Amino acid sequence: MIQNSITMDGFVSAIVLAVFALIFYEIYLRTRPSYRAAAQFPGSKVFPIVQNIFTVLFMSQTRAFANARKLANAYNNQSYRTLVAGILIVEATHHKDVEMLLSSSRLITKSPFYRLTYPFIGIGLLNSTGEKWHQRRKILTPTFHFNILEGFLQIFHEECRRLVVQLEEDAAQGCTTVLQKLFSTVTLNTICETAMGIKLDKSEKSEVYKSNIQDVGKIIQLQMMNPLLHVGWIFRMIGYKSKFDKILQPIHAFTKSIIQHRRDAFHAFGSDVDSLSEENVHMNVKQRYAMLDSLLLAEAQQRIDAKGIREEVDTFTFEGHDTTASALVFLFLVIANENTVQERLYEEIQCMFKSRPNPTMQSYSDLKYMDRVIKESLRIYPPVPFISRLVTEDVQCNGKVIPKGSFMNVHIYDLHRDPEQFSDPERFDPDRFLPESVQRRNPYAYVPFSAGLRNCIGE
Q1: End-to-end CA gap in the chain
Q2: Residue 285: pLDDT above 50?
Q3: Nearest CA among 73, 47, 15, 100 for reference residue 410
Q4: Which of these, 123, 137, 144, lies nearest to 308 by C-alpha position?
């Protein structure tokens, strides 16, 4: 009897302590600057303790995407807010708020969401900030010189021909073509040959690499939507970490072998590193010069180490092929659905080939209608629909104070559907990108490659 009484007393005490802990936690949350700042923005009802966590997390990818669109429409494309664990998250869908963030030279730090990619791509150009980011950007920017792209034109043509052959074979056999898989193969082959100077073959290692790249993305997406999986020991206990590590091991091994192969060739070609400079290697249009060579030159000059090179190669391989493949899928989708656009586009391309059977870079620059079609496709279906930054200092945003430690998420998908900037926004209209139409718009209303200092280097 006494034992039961002690056990009951202990249970009641634990409940009382838990209740007091929750009360004090709620008081703590309400005293944070983020709680007061949240009152300046429209948003869903803030519940005690959990706040808005169920509004943004614990959802499938499809539900999360649909829910974000629902909220953007509910607030008429005006930026709104969510509160999670005492952190203010400003969901920016209006160009004025986006301009404040992306035009800033100080708010360039990615939000903690990007930490989920660290085991895969490390802290390279995508994830770094401050001096490290500036240094990496300086090393890599010259590799996107126009002369270098012109040297890679033959590779682009070869991959496109392979793509057409595959499509024709599928059609002849009556097969259904899965465009995402097909385009991912094309873009991965292209980025590997242009950025890394290596041609992917049909070996088992390269096929495993291609397959694992897709699986990595799936695990990161799953982890992002479930805050419990952000906790290291839970991620390990459930078994996701061991699975993630198993997938990453051959990816990193493959990347390292490519880097070493290119390193050997680089030093064999230019043994006198002091005589090499960014200018003479990038301006030599007769010889293809891969992004990896720029990194190896920087390594020889002690501006980056082997780990840093792997970070950038993994970053560019993943980001460079996945987003481009998605952009191509969406582009084919809209062209298939817009017969008038398709016919006009076909006529422009046919006209180009009649006058220039072997197209040059200038040939593609002269495809003005195609340029507008691509831009309009990127408006309606931006391959990166969402980017996120950490607010590293108190800032003013259209008269509202956003405290340090908050997040700002730019919902590019909704930003591109602002009826103030794009009338009848769901309609596909390439003429939105005629020069006179572009001049009337706020430049931050259309940002498929982000904007400002941290715009996409591959734009």
Answers
A1: 75
A2: no
A3: 100
A4: 123
Contact 219, 184 (CB under 8 A): no
Helices (H), 283-411: 291-300, 306-337, 339-355, 361-365, 368-380
Is-contact 405 87, C-beta < 8 A?
Answer: yes
Task: Return the axis-axis angle of helices 179-195 and 204-225, rounded to nearest 10°.
Answer: 110
d(CA 295, CA 283): 16
Give dist(CA 110, CA 387) in Å, integer. 8
The confidence score (pLDDT) of residue 330 equals 96
| Beta pairing class for 400-402 and 395-397 | antiparallel
- Show Cβ contacts of residue 277 under 8 Å, excluding neighbours closer than 6 positions: none
CB atoms within 10 A of CB 207: 12
Q: What is the pLDDT of residue 150?
A: 82
| C-beta separation of 109 from 389 below 8 A | yes
pLDDT, position 375: 98
Residue 308 CA to residue 300 CA, distance in Å, equals 13
DSSP letter for each residue of 277-313:
-HHHHHS-TTS---HHHHHHHHHHTTSS-HHHHHHHH
pTM summary value: 0.88
The mean pLDDT value of the chain amounts to: 87
Planar angle of CA 410, 413, 414, nearest 5 degrees: 80
- Angle of helix 291-300 versus helix 306-337 axis, rounded to 10: 160
Higher pLDDT, 271 or 389: 389
Residues 6+ apart with CB under 8 A from 241: 232, 235
Encoded tokens for 206: 């390269």
- Residues 6 or more apart whose CB falls under 8 angstroms from that of 64 comprise 56, 225
The span from the CA of 316 to the CA of 322, in Å, is: 10
Q: How many whole angstroms separate alpha carbon 433 and alpha carbon 428?
A: 11
Upper half-sphere CA count for residue 4 (Cβ side, 13 Å): 1
